[in-house]
């Protein structure tokens, strides 16, 4: 069970954040409303929501997931791979230290975004992407193995971050899209296969008794419900415009 989450309010500069999508400029007011709804959904899932204040120096800093990897026993402060995001960790580090006594760091020349790290029970999958390099992935693998977790490094082909295309729902069940549908590293899991036209819905989060999914993906919702999970749908339009998904907006521990 998760007890805590950390989120960060988007600042007005959010509209200038990084993106590879052509979905247009986010509407700041709408992003704030969607962020409020996200916090309410987390609370419905029974977790405490610790909110960090906005920081307009870092347009993408509402995507807190990329700054750390958290386990029940220790925290790893990441070394985000985008130059404009790297210093987000300066504010995140003290926030995380309020909850953890044991922490590690990913250090240059290793780079790693938390969005490239997926935990399935005691096994972590670490994606190699535009943001996470082999050196960063190896550092994390070594940390995790020293703490008795398993770790597998996965080369991404098309997805932005590992978790853009795959989520873990517990009970050995993965939600998979695109290159992960038949990926050998995930062969042993039960799979909920996201149809190509609903690929964005592959980034969903299981928070205690609910799976939070993006609104507007009825086939994926039905598949997740049929597998026995209760869902909460959230409009994510303004975060999607900057390549963000549900997992990116919080650290859960
Ligand atoms: C970025 O390019 O870093 C942000 N615009 C989106 C980050 C999304 N984070 C995530 O998938 N974990």
Report on this structure.
The chain has 253 residues and is an alpha/beta fold. It has a single domain, classed as L-arginine/glycine Amidinotransferase, Chain A, CATH 3.75.10. Helices cover 21% and strands 24% of the residues. The protein has 5 helices and 15 strands. The chain has helices at 28-44, 89-97, 134-146, 218-226, 237-240; strands spanning 4-8, 48-52, 68-70, 75-77, 103-105, 117-120, 123-128, 150-155, 166-168, 173-176, 190-193, 205-207, 210-214, 230-234, 251-252. The strands form 5 sheets. The chain has a 3-stranded mixed β-sheet, covered by helices on one side. A 3-stranded mixed β-sheet has the order 3-4-5, covered by helices on one side. The protein has a 3-stranded mixed β-sheet with strand order 6-7-8, with helices on one face. β4, α2 (89-97) and β5 (103-105) form a beta-alpha-beta unit. The model has no long low-confidence stretch (mean pLDDT 98). Bound molecules: citrulline (CIR).
Computed CA radius of gyration, to the nearest angstrom: 17 Å
Major β-sheet strand ordering: 2-1-15
Provide the number of structural domains: 1
**SSE string:** EHEEEHEEEHEEEEEEHEHE
Tell me about the biggest sheet? 3 strands, mixed
The percent range for strand residues is: 15-25%
Overall, the morphology is globular
Predict the CATH topology.
L-arginine/glycine Amidinotransferase, Chain A
Mind telling me the CATH class?
Answer: Alpha Beta
The CATH superfamily is known as: L-arginine/glycine Amidinotransferase, Chain A
Average pLDDT figure: 98
Q: How many H/I helices?
A: 5
Tell me how many strands there are: 15
Low-confidence stretches: none
Q: List all distinct small molecules, including ions and cofactors, that are bound in this structure.
A: citrulline
Helix content: 10-25%
CATH architecture level-2 label = 5-stranded Propeller
For the record, give the distance between the C-alpha atoms at the N and C termini, rounded to a whole number.
8 Å
- Secondary-structure-derived class: alpha/beta
GO molecular function, one term: amino acid binding
Keywords: Hydrolase
Protein name: N(G),N(G)-dimethylarginine dimethylaminohydrolase
Binding site for substrate: 18, 60, 65-66, 85, 131, 242
């Amino acid at each position: 069970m998760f007890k805590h989450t950390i989120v960060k309010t988007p600042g007005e500069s959010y509209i200038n954040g990084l993106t590879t999508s052509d979905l247009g400029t986010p509407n700041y007011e709408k992003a704030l409303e969607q962020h409020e709804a996200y916090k309410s959904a987390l609370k419905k899932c029974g977790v405490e929501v610790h909110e960090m204040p906005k920081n307009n120096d870092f347009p993408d800093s509402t995507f807190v997931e990329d700054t750390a990897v958290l386990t029940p026993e220790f925290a790893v402060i990441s070394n985000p791979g985008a130059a404009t995001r790297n210093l987000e960790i300066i504010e995140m580090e003290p926030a995380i230290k309020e909850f953890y006594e044991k922490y590690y760091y990913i250090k240059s020349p290793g780079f790693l975004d938390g969005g490239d790290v997926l935990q399935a029970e005691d096994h972590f999958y670490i994606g190699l992407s535009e943001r996470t390099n082999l050196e960063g992935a190896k550092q994390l693998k070594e940390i995790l193995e020293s703490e008795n977790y398993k770790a597998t490094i996965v080369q991404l082909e098309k997805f932005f971050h590992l978790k853009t295309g795959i989520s873990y729902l517990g009970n050995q069940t993965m939600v998979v899209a695109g290159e992960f549908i038949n990926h050998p590293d995930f062969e042993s899991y039960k799979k909920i296969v996201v149809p190509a036209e609903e690929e964005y819905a592959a980034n969903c989060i299981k928070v205690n008794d609910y799976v939070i999914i993006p609104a507007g993906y009825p086939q994926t919702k039905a598949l997740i419900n049929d597998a026995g999970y209760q869902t909460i749908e959230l409009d994510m339009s303004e975060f999607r415009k900057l390549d963000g998904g549900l997992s990116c907006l919080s650290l859960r521990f």
